[in-house]
Structure formats: C-alpha cells, structure tokens
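Letters spell out the chain; backbone shape is given numerically. Take this protein:
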Amino acid sequence: MTSIPVTGYLYHSDEDNSEHSHTLYITSWNGRPVHTHEFRGVTSFDVGHDHRYAGTTEPAPSGVQHTHRYGTFTSFDERHRHEIRGVTGPAIFLPEGGHYHEFSGVTTVDGVTPHRHKYSGRTSL
C-alpha cells in the first residue's frame, strides 16, 4: 500500500449535525499545494429576467484528478436571488499546462412567481 502525505488542519463546526462536528481543510496533497478556481456567468432567462453570479470553488489538490465543490448566490434581481451549489466535473487538462472544470445545474426555487434558472460554464484556469 502506498502512502500519500497530506497536510491541513481541522476546524470545529458549530453546526447541530452530530455526525460531523469538524471540517478538514487540506493545504497540501503529496507535497503539492491545493488550489481553487473562480467561476462566473449568467443564468438562463426565465420569468422575464436572468441573474449574474460569481464565486470561488472550494480547494482541491493539484496534480491529481479531482473535482471542486462550489456555491454562491445570484445577483438580486426582480426582488429576489437564488442559490447555486454543486460539484464541478473532473479537471480538463490543457496541452500547454493548467486545467479548468465544467459546471452546470439549476438554482434554488425563489421569486414572487416561484421559479428556478439553469446555469453552466467553465471555471478559470
């Protein structure tokens, strides 16, 4: 069995979930630092409007196949906003180096006329 050195720290969570009272934040994986990606876009046009969104993914290890969790809120339009949350697809490596991830999903339901929006895009490199 091969061992992979991992460094990080535990953060105590005050959530009421008795199964997970701590969160592990990894700062390096096999000697490589973890990284994040920025993401942004515009939702689909539904019920007479769309929303803008932007955020940063959660960290993931560099140099190995991985995905990132992400979450943010949309812009406040038509007196409401939506939440966006999900997991990116796997890393898509570029010939000249670096990589990006694709993401897509649907927002939470909100608004005077309850509705949701679709969204999709690619993270930054």
User: Anything to note?
Assistant: The chain has one domain: 33-122. The two ends are 33 Å apart (CA to CA). Residues 33-122 form one domain.
